[in-house]
Structure formats: C-alpha cells, structure tokens
C-alpha cells in the first residue's frame, strides 16, 4: 500500500477509464508517499475537479504548480478553476503568468482577458486585448475582445470597427 508506483499507476488506470471514485484513493496514497511528484498532484487535482471538489482540486494543483511554476497548461487550468470558485484576482494573476510563459498561444490571451473581465478590471483587460490584437492581427476573437473593451470603456467610435472586423472574419 505504500509503494508509490503501484498506487500512482492504479489511480492513473482508474482515472483513464473514467472511474474517478476508484482513482481517488490510490492517487491520495501516491501523493502521501511522494508529495513532490508533479504528475500525482496534477492527476489527483484533475480527479477531484471532475468529482466537483474544486477547493481540494485547487490545493493539489497549487502544489503541482509549485513543483513546475512555468507549466502553462496547469496555469491555464488554475486560472479557469479560480474563476469558477470566484477567486477572480487569483485567476487573473495566474492567467497572466501562463501568458508570459507562452505568449504565442492565443487561448492563453483569451484566458487572461476573461480573468481580468471577471475581476472587473476592465482597463487591464483592455490593455491585454490591445496587445492580443497586435500579436494576432487576423484573429477575429482578438478583434472582438478589443472592440468589446473599447466600447465598454466608452470609446465606441474606436471599438465598433473592431467589432465589425470580428464579424467579417472567417
């Protein structure tokens, strides 16, 4: 019962099959025996999230993130989960950290913009949207986000052409 490999592999097998309830205990034992294993913390977080135990999932994902602070995929997950839990400022900080690690990923830009919007920090969302539109000039979603934030800021004359551009893009 204390062997990390056996518990991790059993938990991972159950998780892969979709048997989340069965996956939880072996993964917890794996984490207890090797708390500094990124994959065990990450997968246990994923299992707990799917079991709708967000706060517990966040605990394990934070531990995993401490082990690999620049893992953009995990940072993006943390941002989304923080937002679900209404930890909007935490979501924004983590989203921008993910963005800094992979600035060429349009999805990370959108996650960061959404996090700032959720945190009611629209001037920061606008700055991000401006940077995204510059980085991805043909991206209709980038055009939409910039247009939306400009209109929201009371700058409709500047924002409407961006919204029009977003609607006309394929």
Write the layout of secondary structure elements.
Elements: H1 4-17, H2 20-33, H3 38-50, H4 54-67, H5 72-84, H6 88-101, H7 106-118, H8 122-135, H9 140-152, H10 156-168
Short key terms for the protein model shown above:
single chain, mainly alpha, 170 residues, 79% helix
Report on this model:
By secondary structure, the chain is mainly α. 79% of the residues lie in helices and 0% in strands. It has helices at 4-17, 20-33, 38-50, 54-67, 72-84, 88-101, 106-118, 122-135, 140-152, 156-168. Helix 2 runs antiparallel to helix 3 (38-50), helix 5 runs antiparallel to helix 6 (88-101) and helix 7 (106-118) runs antiparallel to helix 8 (122-135). The termini are far apart.
